[in-house]
Amino acid sequence: MTPAPAVPLADALAGGPLVLDGGLSNQLVAQGCDLSDALWSARLLADDPGQIRAAHAAYARAGAQVLITASYQATFEGFARRGVGREKAAALLRSSVTLAREAGGGEGAPPWVAASVGPYGAMLADGSEYRGRYGLGVAELERFHRPRVETLAEAAPDALALETVPDVDEAEALLRAVRPCGLPVWLSYSVAGERTRAGQPLRDAFALAAGNDQVIAVGVNCCEPADVDRAVELAAEATGKPVVVYPNSGEEWDARARAWRGSPTFAPDRVAGWRSAGARLIGGCCRVGPDLIADLARALRH
């Protein structure tokens, strides 16, 4: 297996901004993959892992220094619905880290690997990760997340990406679930304006991570690029920690037509403002592909 980077991710953040990858799903679609299954990209962990490795490699070639695994929608419950037993599901979760490591095995320093821990709503596959408020308490959400966190930690990623979190209750549950594993984590909310998707003030949501040494960065992802500007400031002010940002392209998904509408608003020239406000992990989410990540990497070098 390709070795992990010699420098811990938390230490690297002190040296300047790092480039995250872009949307894994859009790159898989560009490679000809069908993601219509409820498991989304996680299906390919079982059915065609080579495609996942190739997608990661495309981002590594584009200049991504941190690769996020294909485990966002990979859960024991989701795999069980496909008839995959618990032992096999655990192996597939661990393989998501291995595939990202292998994809970074080219020239130059190996990328850091962040194991994606998506929200409860991702398992439901009904869009509720953009609403939150599932009717579950913090303790119930912690019980859901803990087995997957423990399994991903066994694969020794450089960090856990607690991402696309829609509300503060789930953030609290995730931070409880990761505590025993000891791995560094980043906490990233899905937002609309200055509020979480569930409607809580973003400053309060970020403050949940203040003083938690396990959290190496806080921020936002899977949001409008314009929402990032204020979010970076709020995250830095509320926690004093490095900020992580990886917004969508700015296009909008038309669920009825099952198509993307509008024009992209993700532009590398936004990076200077994000960096000056405290962003240290910068990349893209849905519809942000390797070409845009390459542009972003060039912008961060200047």
UniProtKB/TrEMBL annotation:
Keyword vocabulary terms for this entry: Metal-binding, Methyltransferase, Transferase, Zinc
Domain of life assignment: Bacteria
GO molecular function, a single term: zinc ion binding
InterPro entries: BHMT-like (IPR017226), HCY_dom (IPR003726), HCY_dom_sf (IPR036589), Hcy_S-methyltransferase (IPR051486)
Cofactor binding note: Binds 1 zinc ion per subunit.
Biological processes annotated in GO: methionine biosynthetic process; methylation; S-methylmethionine cycle
Cofactor(s) needed for function: Zn(2+)
A Pfam family per the record: S-methyl_trans
Positions with a binding annotation for Zn(2+): 222, 285-286
Domain Hcy-binding: 6-300
Name of the protein: Homocysteine S-methyltransferase
UniProt source species: Streptomyces albireticuli
